[in-house]
C-alpha cells in the first residue's frame, strides 16, 4: 500500500471524531466475561453518584451531542467551548463559551471545572494552550486522540504500549495524511504534560452511527437495506473494527466520573467482515445477498479500500493488524457495546430523515451504477 493511501486512511480515521441514546435494555449489551461491571443501563442512564462541572472543547459536531445528552442525563453541569458555527441551536440550556482553538481562548481565561473533555484538537499547540490554561482550574483532562497515532499497523493485536508515530518537524501544523498521526501523538504528550497523572487519552478507531458526517460505515446499512446483490470486499474473514459513537461517548463520560487516568484504545471488537455485514442485514431487515470480490480484483477495478469499500482495509502491505487493535484495557474499564445490528438499524433511520440533497451525495461508497459495473466484471471474470 502506498504511503499516500496509508495517509489517507489514517487521516480519515480522525475525520470521524472532529447524537442520541439508543433503545433497549441490559440484555442488549455485549460485555466479555471478566470486564468491569457496567455503571449504567444501555439507553437508560442512571444519575451519577457525584454531579460534575464538565467543560467540553467542541460538543456540537458528531460525537459531541452524544456526550452532552448522556452527561446531562447523568446529572452533570456542562459548559461548551467552540466557535458557535456547528449546530449552534443545540442545547440552549447549556452554558456556551464562544472562541477559537487557533487564536481566541479569551472565554477560557476564567472559570473552574472538575473535568475537561477535549474533542477538537489535532494540533499540539491547541492542546498546549488550552490544557496549560486549565491545569490549575480543572482536576482532570480527557483528550480524544486516534489509533492513527500509532507508528505502524503491521502487528496484529496492537496495544497501548506500542510505538507511536513521530515527525522530524514537531512544529508543523498542516494536517495531511503524513502528519495527522504524529500530531495526534504530540497532542497526547501535551495533555499528559499539563495534567500529569490526571489525563485520560482515548484512541478511537472508526466511529460510526447516527450523525456520522463521513458515511464510512453508513454506506453499508443504507446499501444493504436497499437489498439485492451487494458487492462485498476481500474475504468474509477480513477483520474490521467500528464503535458506535454512543457507546464511545457514554464510556468516556463514565471514565471521567471516576477520574481514570491512562491511555486506552477505544474501538470495536475485531469482527470478521462477513459477520459484520450479516449483522447489518439483520438490523436492516434486508434480503440482500453478498458477492465477495478479492482485494486484487478490486484494485484492478480501481475500487478503493476504506472509501469505496468503507470500513475495510485488506490485511496486507503494513495493515495486517489494522482490524485487530487490542481494546482489552478499555474493556477492563467497562467499555461495552450495543449490537452492530442496532447501530445499523438506527443509522438507516437517521439517514432516511436527512434532506434529499444530503442523501443524494454520500461521502463514501460506490453509487449503484458503479457497483453494478464491478459486479458484472466479477461475474464475467468467473465465467458467470
Question: Briefly, what is this?
Answer:
The protein is of the alpha/beta class and 384 residues long. Helices cover 33% and strands 16% of the residues.
Per the principal axes of the C-alpha atoms, what is the gross shape?
globular
Helix content class = 25-40%
Strand order of the largest sheet: 3-2-1-4-5-6-11
Main sheet attributes: strand count, strand direction, barrel closure: 7 strands, parallel
Estimated share of beta-strand residues: 15-25%
Listing every helix as H and every strand as E from the N terminus to the C terminus, the arrangement reads: HEHEEEHEHEEHEEEHEEHEHEEHHHH
Structural class: alpha/beta
Low-confidence stretches: 16-41
Number of DSSP E strands: 15
CATH class bucket:
Alpha Beta
* Tally of alpha and pi helices: 12
Q: What is the radius of gyration?
A: 21 Å
Question: What is the CA-CA span between the terminal residues?
Answer: 30 Å
The residue-averaged pLDDT reads 90
CATH architecture: 3-Layer(aba) Sandwich
Write the layout of secondary structure elements.
Blueprint: H1 3-15, E1 53-57, H2 63-73, E2 77-82, E3 95-98, E4 113-118, H3 124-134, E5 138-144, H4 180-194, E6 199-204, E7 206-208, H5 219-226, E8 229-233, E9 239-240, E10 242-244, H6 245-257, E11 262-266, E12 271-272, H7 273-284, E13 289-293, H8 295-300, E14 305-306, E15 309-310, H9 328-332, H10 340-352, H11 356-359, H12 368-381
Parallel strand pairs: 1-2, 1-4, 2-3, 4-5, 5-6, 6-11, 7-10, 8-13, 14-15
Antiparallel strand pairs: 9-12
Helix pairs in contact: 2-6, 3-4, 5-7, 5-10, 7-10
